[in-house]
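For this section, I looked closely at the sequence of one protein beside the tokens encoding its backbone, which the following lines show:
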Amino acid sequence: LCPVVSRSYWNSIGERQPSRALAKARLLHDRDPATSWEKWFAAYPSKGIDLRTGPRFTSSDLSLRAASLGLGVALAQERLAEEDLDSGLLFRPFGSARVSVPRAYWLIQPVQNDTRPAVRAVAEWIRLQAKRAGSAADS
């Protein structure tokens, strides 16, 4: 997890020091408790922040969209924000600082392997993406 924000919103706060700027910013919340701002502030304590305020969204993509529109700072799963970060729509005001969130996904197939090419292709793609994500997290 890492804070992401549009440059225009971040600059509008008028604070150069990131933790002070974050204290003045509107925090955008995702309803997933595994990606809550509490996790960020447990790892990077900051004073004067009321986590009860700020809009709450039903999904990560909505909080990222709100951040890209300049409505506040979202706490994002890096993989979900990757495209917006690469394009410059969002940026990471805390650089490479992040909080790890253990998470697991399961690929479930019947005991008798489905031999359809499309099923095999999707399963292989999922395995490749998981391996890449694991390698990126280790570096």
Notes: The helical segments are 7-13, 18-24, 37-43, 60-68, 78-87, 117-138.
